[in-house]
Amino acid sequence: MTAPLEKDRPPRVTEREARQVAEAAREQDWRKPSFAKELFLGRFRLDLIHPHPLPAGEDVRRGEEFLSRLRAFCESSVDGALIEREDRIPDEVIGGLRELGALGMKIDPKYGGLGLTQVYYNKALALVGSASPAIGALLSAHQSIGVPQPLKLFGTQEQKDAFLPRLARHAISAFLLTEPDVGSDPARLATTALPDGDEYILDGVKLWTTNGVVADLLVVMARVPRSDGHPGGITAFVVEADSDGITVENRNTFMGLRGLENGVTRFHRVRVPAANRIGPEGAGLKIALTTLNTGRLSLPAMCVGAGKWCLKIAREWSAVREQWGRPVARHEAVGAKISFIAATTFALEAVVDLASQMADEDRNDIRIEAALAKLYGSEMACLMADELVQIRGGRGFETAGSLAARGERAVAAEQLLRDLRINRIFEGSTEIMHLLIAREAVDAHLKVAGGLIDPDTSLGDKAKAGAQAGAFYARWLPQLVTGPGRLPTSYQEFHPAGHPDLATHLRYVERASRRLARATFLGMARWQGRMETKQGFLGRIVDIGAELFAMSAACVRAELLRGGGDGHGREAYQLADAFCRQSRLRVEELFGRLWKNTDDIDRKVVGKVLAGAYTWLEEGVIDPSGDAPWIADATPGPSHRENVHRPIP
């Protein structure tokens, strides 16, 4: 194999340069209040989420009407087992989704879409994802991160008029950012877009293009070189998927989500009109991150659907399966798992619905809330699915097809575990989400004290930063000493007669919020410029914040349901109480691990592993992986493979 030319390799960038690219892409200002941002600063702003915001009556009517039609379609026309067996969503199913208007759930009615709110869009994804996770992924990739959302936020009127009606009715879209050697470090993006008159010429290779195999329209991120009249930078384009020079070289297959139309797409001298550029040159990453602020809510929404199904199967199975003379649910070891699934599903739905409703109202900045929902939902859903497999025992490990073949109910517990696993990687891995959220959580500190810990800051600027930081911390630190969480009478509306006491949990959240802020400050004071390398510490800080957000959302939702007149208020309070008690145990463990952990020894072991000091430990096994390169060659040029692009008729 010929080695790629140096000029064709992804740009070599330092760690600092990569951070600078990411920093330039994030939203710099906070123009609206943020509950989660305040939570990390030690300020428990319950007033920002309570009373729980509610959708407008007309939004509810339209949303419920669509959910009714979607449920009927899924029950009559979607065979999830068939999709799992054949590794493909039937064309007629996609045709039926088009007729329902499912491709245009979030598109404004004036362009032919349904104009659903974020709340009902997420409910629709949870519903359809329970019928087939592959369909949920297709619809989510199309609307949450595909062409419609960037155009809605950043597109010109001409672009909206040209593309949104197609996308609402029949055209499937995909989002193309990742490359074979470029993941969460877009500073190394290698795909180029060279200006040529009124066009750009795209060259490069994109990996893991969800919907890319069947897409009609693509959002492509490419690097525009700087030149006269062109500021350059990573830029977003709408590209017709059948353009000359585009080849889908492979349809990828995975451990789960069979039916996912995910591929490798090569661009060779693909001409794209300049009119198809979304926003200015260099705005591509900002567009992608802003799109994900609400787009990330689709994954935890489908995790809510998974939790609901886990609870249903666990309840039904555990009531009929007997061991030692009684149903397994009555054994404490199994009962604890069922309680965890029930309480966590309640809390996760509370988190998603609250963040979604706040997104619809647009009163708050929800960038942290949406990221926490994605992080927390993807992690907890995997745990719930794993517990369901354990509750089912050997049947949990057995495929649905095998169960059916021997005359038992085809419960696809093992499939759910496989399908959910990708959510911890999709749209920002857990590790990247920890860093992203941590960056936002310490934003206020960096704005006032960043100059003190930046090694490149001059002495004069450090002095100015010191004065600014001194003034900020003189006001802020005293606020962390005490608060409403110390008063036994605080939040008493959350302790109505005859209901569990949720006020005590909210007081805990308030105290823990201040404790979390103090820990963050101590970490910054201790490590200063090295804080960004303390990923274990930052991950625990974020995980504590996620638990506190989930507890807050669960309590607020329970109070909403108590006053809703549907008769579930008492049960909602019980679930919220159970969740908060479970969550508090996790929070206390995380607080303890902030300062007592194995991070230092882990780092030493990793160094030894990479140096080859433990290769003797690898002896005695056979590696069947083969000897192909770890990362496929992505040198730009014409494709020499068959085009497997398969647009749906």
Automatic annotation (TrEMBL):
SUPFAM superfamilies: Acyl-CoA dehydrogenase C-terminal domain-like (SSF47203), Acyl-CoA dehydrogenase NM domain-like (SSF56645). Residues 282-440 form the Acyl-CoA dehydrogenase/oxidase C-terminal domain. Residues 174-270 form the Acyl-CoA oxidase/dehydrogenase middle domain. GO terms for cellular component: cytoplasm. Residues 64-169 form the Acyl-CoA dehydrogenase/oxidase N-terminal domain. Residues 1-27 are annotated as: Disordered. InterPro entries: Acyl-CoA_dehydrogenase, Acyl-CoA_Oxase/DH_mid-dom, Acyl-CoA_Oxase/DH_mid-dom_sf, AcylCo_DH-like_C, AcylCo_DH/oxidase_C, AcylCoA_DH/ox_N, AcylCoA_DH/ox_N_sf, AcylCoA_DH/oxidase_NM_dom_sf. GO terms for molecular function: acyl-CoA dehydrogenase activity; flavin adenine dinucleotide binding. Its cofactor is FAD. It catalyses: a 2,3-saturated acyl-CoA + A = a 2,3-dehydroacyl-CoA + AH2. Pfam families: Acyl-CoA_dh_1, Acyl-CoA_dh_M, Acyl-CoA_dh_N. One of its GO terms (biological process) is fatty acid beta-oxidation using acyl-CoA dehydrogenase. Keywords: FAD, Flavoprotein, Oxidoreductase. PANTHER family: ACYL-COA DEHYDROGENASE FADE10-RELATED, MEDIUM-CHAIN SPECIFIC ACYL-COA DEHYDROGENASE, MITOCHONDRIAL-RELATED. Belongs to the acyl-CoA dehydrogenase family. This is Acyl-CoA dehydrogenase. It comes from Streptomyces qinzhouensis. The lineage of its organism: Bacteria, Bacillati, Actinomycetota, Actinomycetes, Kitasatosporales.
